[in-house]
Amino acid sequence: MDKAAPLSASFGIRRLCAAMALAAAMVVACASEAQDMQGGMSAMSPAAAPSNDTPANPAGTAPPDYLLGPGDRVRIVVFGQPDLSGQFHLDGNGKISMPLINAVDASGLSASALEKRITERLRPGYLKDPSVSVEILSYRPFYIVGEVRTPGSYPYVAGMTAINAVALAGGFTYRANESTFEIKRGEENGSVEMEAGPETGIRPGDVIRIKERWF
């Protein structure tokens, strides 16, 4: 038998093995590249991309011009002063009681105005250059009276409308005027009364009156 035959067969086997190994490596590389491309496409997809439709105010917040009143709860942070920081509840007179400066009248103030008032009280007798932050944690309830089944006070929910308030109060009575309501609202210069419809937004502390229809 020719000695060159086994050598040729052995050489052929080695070439076949090398080709198979190269093919396997190419398959692995292609799979890895495809996975990377898929990951990149996922990162660029609308579900993962940041949305420009995010609401300006997070859920649970009142309008930016909201004025504090009795029943609200706030978090006050005096930076670098943990003993002066904490959560505070506005009492029935609209005041909060803080360490060092005692009672602070917060009723009728915005969060930013309360920051300034506390800063003024702390400077210069207690702190040289205080930095104060105020965050509203929870809001006082709203009130609904008149021609509803269960009048009373109810927790405020951000985005609530007058008709939502009626639903919480058990719905209209058969005598109710279902199209026009009255809202009494506290403002910086006192309270105001205004007419409202079912889709009118309400605020913490509002008093909604459902009037009786005349026919």
Which stretches are low in confidence, meaning pLDDT under 50 for 5 or more residues running? 1-60
Under the CATH scheme, which class of the domain at 142-212?
Alpha Beta
Largest sheet: 5 strands, mixed
- Count every beta strand, where a strand is a DSSP E run of 2 or more residues: 10
Sheet with most strands: strand arrangement = 7-6-10-8-9
What's the CATH H-level homologous superfamily of the domain at 142-212?
A: Outer membrane lipoprotein wza domain like
Shape: elongated
Sheet-strand content, in percent, reads 25-35%
Percent of residues in helices comes to: 25-40%
* Number of helices, where a helix is a run of at least 4 consecutive DSSP H or I residues: 3
The ordered string of helix (H) and strand (E) elements is HEEEEHEEEHEEE
Instruction: Indicate the radius of gyration in whole angstroms.
Output: 34 Å
Alpha-beta content class: alpha+beta
Q: Mean pLDDT, rounded to whole units?
A: 77
What's the CATH topology name of the domain at 142-212? Answer: Outer membrane lipoprotein wza fold like
**Distance from first to last alpha carbon:** 120 Å
CATH architecture type of the domain at 142-212: Roll
